[in-house]
Amino acid sequence: MPRAGQRPRLVEVAERAGVSLATASRALAGREGVSTEVADRVRLVARELGYVVNPYARTLAGGARSTVGLIVHQVDDPYFSEIAAGVIQLAAEQGLLVQICQSGRDPDYELQQLRHLIAQRVGIILISGSGYDDPRVEAEARAELAAFQDHGGRVAAIGRHALGVDAVLPDNEAGGHALAAHLMDLGHRRIAVAAGSAGLTTVADRLAGVTSALRQRGLRPADLTVVHGDFTRGGGRAATEQILNEHPETTAIVALNDAMAIGVLSTLRSRRVPVPARISVVGFDDVSVAADLAPSLTTIRLPMTEMGRTALTLALKPRSARPRRRATGHLLVVRDSTGPAPTT
Amino acid sequence: MPRAGQRPRLVEVAERAGVSLATASRALAGREGVSTEVADRVRLVARELGYVVNPYARTLAGGARSTVGLIVHQVDDPYFSEIAAGVIQLAAEQGLLVQICQSGRDPDYELQQLRHLIAQRVGIILISGSGYDDPRVEAEARAELAAFQDHGGRVAAIGRHALGVDAVLPDNEAGGHALAAHLMDLGHRRIAVAAGSAGLTTVADRLAGVTSALRQRGLRPADLTVVHGDFTRGGGRAATEQILNEHPETTAIVALNDAMAIGVLSTLRSRRVPVPARISVVGFDDVSVAADLAPSLTTIRLPMTEMGRTALTLALKPRSARPRRRATGHLLVVRDSTGPAPTT
DNA sequence: ACGGGGTACGTAAGCGCTTTCGTAAGCGCT
DNA sequence: AGCGCTTACGAAAGCGCTTACGTACCCCGT
């Protein structure tokens, strides 16, 4: 019988439907071995009673986990919040809840968050963001994730290879290549890169694309100015100051993500450097505000929301023998922040 | 004895420490009735074994819940992602996990999310965003939350009154007043408002502040043009088109949040309307990108991250007899998007 | 008519923890 | 010495669910 003011339990449902606990459980979990007639009756009663399974009891008893953990570098960075939006959308459709953590781009803290999530016994873990150049961190993360998967956990990564798990991967190198090629087609030869932290694989990959484009067109990598900051607007501002001071001949700045590009544009504006008349600027990611900046930003579009959904989709499928990879499309979006190199 | 490849359980800790399960549990939960000597030994063993309590078992057994649910309108809106960042920060410091949901500003869907969270037995619920004008929805939400609190749940709201729970509240009316006053001090008399959906309490409050400033200075509310859209960049763009077409005499646009203000600026730029020479623009919230826009945005600063932290702090305290309220400061930040009204 | 095999369902044993209750030991008091 | 009181700890009863196993029952072939 129902207890005053408490949520109904499975026993209540079972009694009202005139079946045993086991049958009620099977019926609601959609497991076989229950006649459709009985199953329908149980589901009906459950609906009437407003019954919702207690996830703690279910998980403890060894049933399916209902929560997915999501680790991102920074939630208030549009790149990650758009990915998170995709994950959360799909999770809601599936009746899953999303536990979100941020690592602040600190590899050790991220590892700690990961362990915490595993210790909390979430069912699925999604890791989004760059990998780290530090082989120790990557190896430890790999090991934790492998053990987690061996105990039935499911994992997928977004934008991170080398973790030994399913992953959705943008082609950072091709994107970097396309940006540099676009600038060179406009006549730019003095190009500077506002790069994120040197320890991130994303930075290395995008940078590799840029240098390959230069090499392809006969420039030497030494002709390229690379300034490392971090993947934030502030990082973009600092990088721009340095570029302006140390390499005044620069005619184009490649920011390796849009957040930095916003900082670059902001600093150029306050220094009264016309964009793109004097310096062209490109970003990477196409966060949604990129189109509304002044000037609007030429960048590489990555389908962030879809990437989040795809990652969860991968994690929802049964584990495969070898890690799956999904490449995401990317597209050069030319807007107003790039123009022909100035003819000195 | 430990089982191969499995996380250690409390029994393992208890055995190694030479105490009973009950004592081990008490020691780790910091409950009294355990000598400091024994408690230290248990904690030491737990650390050695890498023991972390199984939250499902703990919750099922009636112990403390360790997860906080956070409902926001939209995760990829900087206003909410900055609030979320604050909540997540503090939660991480407290060893709590954050379950995040988005409502898409749909009152019924939000109610559904709320029920889902309650059914999932999270311990704490934080609701962020505007309330709705619809009395039915608000009443239902109140009722759900009241029942939740009666069963030991904890709740706090951000930017929402009328829910009968602890809340942290920006003074939207004073902010709206300050914006309008600033514009009128600059000589603007033809002011238009790009407002969010008419059904949101935040919109009504900010708008009330604007009209009170006009009235205070001898203008009639009828002199004010109000266009309703939604609280997004797209909403700002649409509102601007309408204002420009139907009220070409307008010299200042008040966007009721920064997202709309970005859309307003973007449209004015593509229509080649100089800001602030021809039209001044103000926003509300001071999301972090506001300072990096071109022109940088005059707006009301709300301490979003701190608001998130404060809300969680409120929810962490024991429930008080009557709902607590924390007012948040706000500050008019004057930047480059506002200037003297053009002298026609 | 009878045994074998499959299907539908019930019984009961946990999952790993918290907490109530009970007990033994130690204390001060008369 | 005997009493009650407090303190430190252990035994065991669940929390609400899933699932291995057991038991009816029915359909089939012979």
From TrEMBL, chains A, B:
<dbReference type="InterPro" id="IPR046335">
    <property type="entry name" value="LacI/GalR-like_sensor"/>
</dbReference>
<keyword id="KW-0238">DNA-binding</keyword>
<dbReference type="InterPro" id="IPR010982">
    <property type="entry name" value="Lambda_DNA-bd_dom_sf"/>
</dbReference>
<dbReference type="InterPro" id="IPR000843">
    <property type="entry name" value="HTH_LacI"/>
</dbReference>
<feature type="compositionally biased region" description="Basic residues">
    <location>
        <begin position="319"/>
        <end position="328"/>
    </location>
</feature>
<keyword id="KW-0804">Transcription</keyword>
<feature type="domain" description="HTH lacI-type">
    <location>
        <begin position="8"/>
        <end position="62"/>
    </location>
</feature>
<dbReference type="GO" id="GO:0000976">
    <property type="term" value="F:transcription cis-regulatory region binding"/>
</dbReference>
<dbReference type="Pfam" id="PF00356">
    <property type="entry name" value="LacI"/>
</dbReference>
<dbReference type="InterPro" id="IPR028082">
    <property type="entry name" value="Peripla_BP_I"/>
</dbReference>
<feature type="region of interest" description="Disordered">
    <location>
        <begin position="318"/>
        <end position="344"/>
    </location>
</feature>
<dbReference type="Pfam" id="PF13377">
    <property type="entry name" value="Peripla_BP_3"/>
</dbReference>
<keyword id="KW-0805">Transcription regulation</keyword>
<protein>
    <submittedName>
        <fullName>Transcriptional regulator, LacI family</fullName>
    </submittedName>
</protein>
<dbReference type="GO" id="GO:0003700">
    <property type="term" value="F:DNA-binding transcription factor activity"/>
</dbReference>
